[in-house]
Amino acid sequence: MTNKSQMLRQRAPLPNKAARQSGSGISSPLPLHSTDLHDDESRGKKYSELSRNHTMFLFIQLLIAFTILFLVLASMSRGRFLDNDSFHNNPLQQQEVNGPAYRQHEHIIPRVAYFTYSYNILNTTVFRELPEDEVLANNVRNTIALHPGTEFHFLTDDDCLAAIRKVVDMDKSSKLRKLEDYFLREDRGMIKADVCRGAALFLSGGLYFDVDLQLRMNVWDMIKHDTEFVVPLVHKDHKVKGAF
Q1: How many domains does the chain have?
Q2: Which of 14, 89, 167, 199 has the largest CB neighbor count within 10 A?
Q3: Which InterPro entries does this entry report, sorted A to Z (predicted)?
């Protein structure tokens, strides 16, 4: 019995080093189970998915921000004649047309038309200085309605001045350089309108209508497709015969 006990004690495995040191506060490493690995893998996938979602969310936000910025800058640039050589400052600009007859512009004269006044009488946010401005505004709207498919622009004094300056810069003529000062000194609206429309039509072509000109039909229907210049004459009872 004693011999067998001694043999069993001799055959008993000795504790490993980590186990012998457990009494000193150092524990043996815990074995890894398959469930732990599965949990770590799941957490990694969730973190990766959250990261992708967060990145996509930031990308969409940036895309929206750049889109809004582009639209704001585009809207600010509309109507700035010196920046883009356009007169896009008319809030009632006509959209595409009624019927196939106007869908293809066949005239040599560009299908563009202009009004001019000291300020934009079509803009209801601007204080109308004179009672008749409402009547003039309605007349302008009637002219626009008679010309579907035509791009209308309303030039204020500031827009006119910008057009005049551009013409002067293009020509470099000493006589034309006086045109800006003349426009600034002139008080009569009809004279300022004559100067303004000359500059605008020189730069882009098209038609010009006085705000008090009452039209009864579409002017394009009376203009031949190969006509390069057209001007109305005064009626037969006008005090200045043959004027236009």
Answers
A1: 1
A2: 199
A3: Glycosyltransferase_domain, GlycoTrfase_DXD_sugar-bd_CS
